């Protein structure tokens, strides 16, 4: 084969379907409910802090593992909120978004042949992350609730299936709570069960908690680092992106035990050197926002969730009500299309609404064939416009 081609690794995954949907949406002038970025402004104090940092000449490289002020703010906030001590100098690494924090962590701790347990459906990046880091993924199914709610409203996993996924080769498990795409918020009991397996098999928990503050209906976010014996074997990943509506800034971080931080920092340094220095300075302002901001953020998102649930319900989708994050997973079986991709393309081209085909969250496309994910990090007018366009949709039997 010609050498003018992608590597074996790069050939194992396709371009991001989520970002492809955003591009298709632009082409067709649709309403974008696919990629999870807000269409409303970021908080003024955060934007002002970024402008002030640029004007104040914070324009050169920050320390490669993150500006001291931001690392201290990250450590202080995690300890204040969850009671887990974090040493900014030894445990915090600032990266280019949670995306890079996840990639740097996996490349830092995984050797080819190591197994990584991943709950499925999963945030689409974890698949390529596993391939690029040489990990062998072991998927554990998150089962959807019955839409009628007769067997509960939560996505659940079978503890025996989870236990069977661990063995001597297991290096890590990836957790994402609140979860994209399902909206599941892992309970303390579930995290304790995961923690017990990590301790038994000497595995690391890599926990993506980027939707920490977007949580509804009295649910509480539990970081797995707060489970007994887990702080020393957990890498907690987070970012400014979702909490402060600045997904384009690309500032995220990993909080890791000192035993793993050195490796993460080395990989991070050679991947990207560092995240944008003035935006790290603005991150200090963001993390200092008064507590009321977070309650308002969650309340605003709950309202948007309910608005989109109502719209999708009226437009014949079967919805799985999320307890956190800003997505609604739906079932599209009633529309009678061959699969999720065909339906998603029809939706963006002919109806003018972009959403993400369910198969992009599963290792085997067939498992997501009747699913579609919508996001609700959008202004009321955007959601109302989507509602108007979706009026054209009719269930298969009603043609
Ligand atoms: N992790 C999850 C679960 C996400 O849903 C997203 C974005 O949608 C990311 C990470 C990306 O985060 P960042 O913008 O900080 O790279």
Describe this structure in words.
The chain has helices spanning 8-11, 17-28, 44-55, 68-82, 88-91, 97-109, 126-133, 159-165, 188-201, 258-272, 277-287, 292-314, 340-351, 380-390, and strands spanning 31-32, 92-95, 115-120, 136-141, 170-176, 204-208, 234-239, 252-255, 318-320, 327-331, 353-354, 356-357, 371-375. By secondary structure, it is α/β, with parallel strands linked by helices. The protein has 2 domains: 10-42 and 292-390, Alpha-Beta Complex (Aspartate Aminotransferase, domain 1), CATH 3.90.1150.10; 44-287, Type I PLP-dependent aspartate aminotransferase-like (Major domain) (Aspartate Aminotransferase, domain 2), CATH 3.40.640. Strands 2-8-7-6-5-3-4 form a 7-stranded mixed beta sheet, with helices on both faces. A 4-stranded antiparallel beta sheet has the order 9-10-13-12. The radius of gyration is 21 Å and the shape is globular. It starts with 7 loop residues before the first helix and ends in a 9-residue tail after the last helix. The model has no long low-confidence stretch (mean pLDDT 95). The structure holds pyridoxal-5'-phosphate.
